[in-house]
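Before going further, it is useful to explain how the protein records used in this thesis are read. An example of such a record is reproduced below.

***
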Amino acid sequence: MNFYKSSDIEDFLTSLEKDSYPMKPCSKDDILKLVELSPTRTLPKTYLDFMNKAGNGIEFLVGTDYSMKYIFDLKEWAIELLEENNSIKILTDNQFIFMMNQGYMFWFFNLNDGYNPAVYCYDESVELDDFNKVSDTLSDFLISLYH
């Protein structure tokens, strides 16, 4: 099976592990803290699987803020970015910011969108009326960043 085409993030990361690809997992305490970030809704299984294996760093995401070091600040930074750009877009409690790049773009998923949610993006250099849907699934989005 070619895991790079798989929609299962766990299989993809396991295949990277077998190749000794550099990644640092979250601890059990880290995962508990993540779950507490969303007390009223369950975080998607795909996201938790990813963070469980690579939540404290993975080589292909160097320079991208997504790890436990940053996760607690991402939503605040995203709101600030929207305000700085006088954007009419608004983030709700249903939207979970899971990644930011260089302070000018961020990615999120909707917490009520199932175990493998679609991914949306805000990029300050692109003017759109709404957030841009960049992937139908979180697993496909994360795997695409590897290529």
Summary: The helical segments are 9-18, 28-37, 45-54, 74-84, 138-146. The longest helix spans residues 74-84.
